[in-house]
Design goal:
about 110 residues; alpha+beta; 2 helices
Length: about 110
């Protein structure tokens, strides 16, 4: 790997931000899903159409989709973890694009070595 100074500024910044995310914050690959449901109790507001809302984390585990209930007190925290994962993926995409550009440039110049 070459010294970071030869990398484009955007790639250096993306690498720095990605490292901070990975080392400093929890993250999870998934999506928040809000489900409407009825509880079945007689006289409850949900029997009149005002359904209860439940929050779930949708993830893939061992190739299967899982829905994990998220208690109300953890909802914002889990939303942040999902958001952090998505930010990391965007940063990795920037780094990958920069690397691809370097490869294309290197091939055009008939480069050899690293």
């Amino acid at each position: 790997m070459r010294h970071r100074n030869v990398m484009p500024q955007e790639e250096r910044e993306a690498r720095s931000r990605a490292a901070k995310l990975v080392h400093g914050y929890p993250f999870i690959k998934g999506a928040i899903v809000i489900s409407e449901r009825t509880c079945g109790k007689l006289g409850c507001r949900c029997t009149r159409g005002e359904k209860h809302l439940s929050c779930y984390l949708s993830v893939r585990h061992k190739g299967k989709r899982k829905m994990i209930y998220v208690p109300r007190e953890l909802e914002e925290r889990i939303r942040t973890w999902v958001k952090t994962y998505k930010q990391g993926i965007r940063l990795i995409d920037i780094i990958s694009e920069s690397s691809l550009n370097r490869l294309v440039k290197w091939k055009k110049e008939g480069g050899s070595g690293r």
